[in-house]
Amino acid sequence: MFKPQEPDPPKRTGSLLASNPLRTALDKQVDSLAKRYFNHHTAVGLSIGVWQHDSLFRYNYGETAAGNGLPPTANTLFEIGSISKTFTATLLADAVQRGLVKLGDPVNRYLPDSIPTLQKDGVVVTLQMLSNHTSGLTRLPTNLFSAKANGQNPYQHYDRQELMTYLKKAELNRKPGDKAEYSNLGVGLLGTILEMVNKQSYQQLITERITNPLGLSATTITLTDAQKKQFAQGHNAKLSPVPAWDFQALVGAGGIRSTVNDMITYLRAEIGKGPTALTNAMQLTQQPTLTTNGQSIGLGWFSGKPGWWWHNGGTGGYSTYATFHREQQKAVVILTNIETNSGADQLGLALASWLVK
């Protein structure tokens, strides 16, 4: 409902820019999959990160903006969209470990008294349910689509006051805990609650609890002037440039920007390569809380194939995918600067599947 009519995308001309030495079997497989991606999807730029055998491999294809002739690098910034939810889950696990909250705490314990109890059929919504999408809350709050809404930057106006206004009248779709139903609202609310509990902004939380301990110098919400120069231009599915998305109350659902370098370091920590307190919190996010239709859901992360945890992301101008296998010590990150339905997912899944052959 946010997407205006756009002209057909221009056809790609010239050769595909690429940084791939084409020496190893991995190099050649990545090249084959990347070229297949560009042949089958409208695409602009692509950054790929692979971790295996204690080694990091990075590959870049295409352009940072359509037609500019500048290839992305491992330090090019992209919106990671809903992969941000795994950061929010890590902040929740970290708060649990520090004794600030419990997973089974009712959400209303941390909300103003003016908010009616979030419940259905006598079951209240808990913090864990916000993270694993079983809260029964809708995907998005209905008052997001107000007169203030900007179709090209839909979350920009939505502040804490509007979120609390919505919660006063919120009705759950189903009994909490019974079934997973993806909810940006639920994880966004969780991010807001963690801000309240810690008395810090979401930016301060991810900086203090995640990015500084891991040395993720580029992973952030708000870009500095220097970082703006490294920020890939986002494009819609018609290859038209679109504005970046900005978040307020729902930032925990999708507001983070990052690079391939930082994201691989983040996934290495998920595998266990990082400060003990943080990796222990991350391991808590990888404990299944619900299994349905052959898929397990942890806190933030999903698992379809045994051992592999994944999450994807999509905003108005970016599509992303991240997956890792803790026991096999392997990880894949895909960052693109175009909105696609499944291109980043397909590429990431194919590469992860090849790694375990």
Explain what you see.
The protein has 357 residues and is α+β, with helices and mostly antiparallel strands. The protein contains ten helices and 15 strands. It has helices spanning 25-40, 84-97, 127-131, 160-167, 184-198, 202-214, 225-228, 260-271, 276-285, 343-355; strands spanning 18-19, 45-52, 55-62, 78-79, 119-120, 123-124, 234-235, 241-242, 257-258, 290-292, 295-297, 302-303, 308-314, 319-325, 330-336. Strands 1-3-2-15-14-13 form a six-stranded antiparallel beta sheet, sandwiched between helices. β11 and β12 (302-303) form a beta hairpin. The chain is globular.
Cα end-to-end separation: 41 Å
> Count of DSSP helices?
10
Low-confidence stretches: 1-13
Overall pLDDT score: 94
Largest sheet strand order: 1-3-2-15-14-13
> How would you describe the shape?
globular
- The proportion of residues forming helix, as a percent range, comes to 25-40%
Main sheet properties: 6 strands, antiparallel
What is the element string, with H for helices and E for strands?
EHEEEHEEHHHHHEEEHHEEEEEEH
Rg result: 20 Å
Q: What percentage of amino acids are in beta strands?
A: 15-25%
- Class from helix and strand fractions: alpha+beta
Number of DSSP E strands: 15
